Structures are given as C-alpha cells and as structure tokens.
Amino acid sequence: MLRHFYLAGGLSSLALGGVGVVLPLLPTVPFVILAAFCFARSSPRLEAYLLDHAQFGPHIRAWREHGAISRRGKGAALAAFAVSSAAAVIFAPMPAPLITLAAALIGGTWIWTRPESPGPEV
C-alpha cells in the first residue's frame, strides 16, 4: 500500500514538473527531485529513467550527493521570488504582500545558502 502511495506521489510530482516547463513561475527541478525520491521507494525503473535523463539527472544527483543547487537554478528561483513579490506588492491589498515577502525572504535565504553544484554548471 505504501508503495502505491509513493508511486502516485512520484507521478503527481512529475506531472507538476511537466507543467512547470511551460509555466515560468512553477519550478520544474524540485518536483522532478521529489519524483525521484518517491520513485526510489516505489519504482526502480522510473527512478533509473530520471537519473539517466540528460536534463534532470545531473540536478537530481547533485542534490542527492551534495544538497547542491546550480548557480543558474539559484538565480532562476531568486528571480521568480522577486517577480512574485513585486507583483504581490503592486496588485494585492495590504497586508497580504507582507506574507509573500516573508515567504520569499525565507525561501530565498534557504536557497542562497545551499552549496553550488560541484564541477561544471548543470
């Protein structure tokens, strides 16, 4: 039963990651990393597919081995936080933007403090 839960979670995460490919503010790689985590507990074949994937495999391995995020990934995430925060300040009534700003500061600080991927930029 738990295996099916992880399989459903992995497939859902992979679907959200796929949506993130076309929606600029929805992250792709974190959902694919979560999918790999779930597939490691439910489907070795799907996990191997993700680890061997040309685009996502290096990101998954860097996260698993070093807890690392590429410099480009950090920049994209922080830019998305900045755009979201600016939109909230401009369009949302107070005090809602303060919640968005707090979340962006907390999340952005955490991302900024992660080590960068060793070796060539992935």
UniProtKB/TrEMBL annotation:
<dbReference type="Pfam" id="PF04304">
    <property type="entry name" value="DUF454"/>
</dbReference>
<keyword id="KW-0472">Membrane</keyword>
<protein>
    <submittedName>
        <fullName>DUF454 domain-containing protein</fullName>
    </submittedName>
</protein>
<feature type="transmembrane region" description="Helical">
    <location>
        <begin position="6"/>
        <end position="39"/>
    </location>
</feature>
<keyword id="KW-1133">Transmembrane helix</keyword>
<keyword id="KW-0812">Transmembrane</keyword>
<feature type="transmembrane region" description="Helical">
    <location>
        <begin position="79"/>
        <end position="112"/>
    </location>
</feature>
<dbReference type="GO" id="GO:0005886">
    <property type="term" value="C:plasma membrane"/>
</dbReference>
<dbReference type="InterPro" id="IPR007401">
    <property type="entry name" value="DUF454"/>
</dbReference>
